[in-house]
Automatic annotation (TrEMBL):
Keywords: Membrane, Transmembrane, Transmembrane helix. It comes from the Bacteria. Pfam families: TPR_21 (PF09976), TPR_6 (PF13174), TPR_8 (PF13181). The keyword Transcription regulation does not apply. This is Ancillary SecYEG translocon subunit/Cell division coordinator CpoB TPR domain-containing protein. The keyword Transmembrane applies. The chain crosses the membrane at residues 37-58. InterPro entries: SecYEG/CpoB_TPR, TPR-like_helical_dom_sf, TPR_rpt. It comes from Desulforapulum autotrophicum (strain ATCC 43914 / DSM 3382 / VKM B-1955 / HRM2) (Desulfobacterium autotrophicum). Residues 39-143 form the Ancillary SecYEG translocon subunit/Cell division coordinator CpoB TPR domain.
Length: 226
């Protein structure tokens, strides 16, 4: 028995398949615009190649910078801090100038700041620590270390107000790194200027919240002296 097909169904079957029609249009467009498509794919490949090349260049630059920095610092000896400072001063300056915006350059600033500090070159240490601070804003732990280094350097320079600013910055951070030291140094600064009430609060805070700190026994002694 032959199936009867309605006129509506016949009409529907006579229509082209939407998927096949779209596929045919895409094929036609591909043929027509194959040059443009090829150029587009070529551009994507070129961008990828440039990006990969840039990353390779960055890694190569960082590796080279790290090797150079290691060579420079190998000439430093802390046996005589002043002579050690003089031995690497010019090379470090050249290094920072030759490899700006590298991780190795940031590390060089911190390392040389400590070298300058140990040699008693506090102004230079201060400038180096300050320069490094701008490069470690995204690293809370490193930022705290630099705040502490700047605070101690400022104390040697007699810049008590600036030192207080850095110690207060440490106290306000979420990390506990160097908080005992910052509280103690700030307490000493406040006691020195006659602000015994806040000074005592800070020493007590060390005892209460940082009892395992090396500054806790000294803080206890200072509380009894006030």
């Amino acid at each position: 028995m032959v199936d009867k097909i309605s006129n509506a169904r016949k009409k529907e079957l006579g229509q082209p398949d939407p998927f096949l029609e779209a596929l045919q249009k895409w094929a036609n467009a591909t043929t027509r615009y194959k040059k443009q498509i090829a150029l587009g794919i070529g551009a994507i490949v070129a961008i990828a190649a440039i990006f990969s090349g840039t990353l390779y260049s960055i890694h190569r630059s960082e590796d080279k910078a790290s090797e150079f920095l290691a060579q420079v610092l190998s000439r430093y000896s802390d046996t005589d801090p002043v002579k050690g400072y003089e031995a690497v001063k010019a090379d470090v300056a050249e290094f920072i100038s030759s490899y700006p915006n590298t991780a190795a350059s940031s590390q060089a600033r911190v390392r040389f700041a400590k070298i300058a500090f140990d040699a008693g070159k506090f102004e230079e240490a201060h400038d180096m620590y300050l320069g490094a601070l701008n490069e470690f804003k995204a690293d809370p732990a490193m930022e705290n270390l630099l705040f502490g280094s700047l605070g101690r350097t400022c104390l040697f320079l007699g810049k008590k107000a600036e030192a207080e600013t850095y110690f207060r910055k440490i106290i306000k951070t979420k990390t506990t790194l160097l908080k005992g030291e910052a509280l103690f140094n700030l307490g000493l600064l406040l006691a020195d200027r006659g602000d015994t009430a806040e000074s005592q609060q800070l020493f007590q805070k060390i005892v209460n919240e940082h009892g395992d700190s090396m500054y806790a026994p000294m803080a206890k002694a200072r509380i009894h002296q006030l």
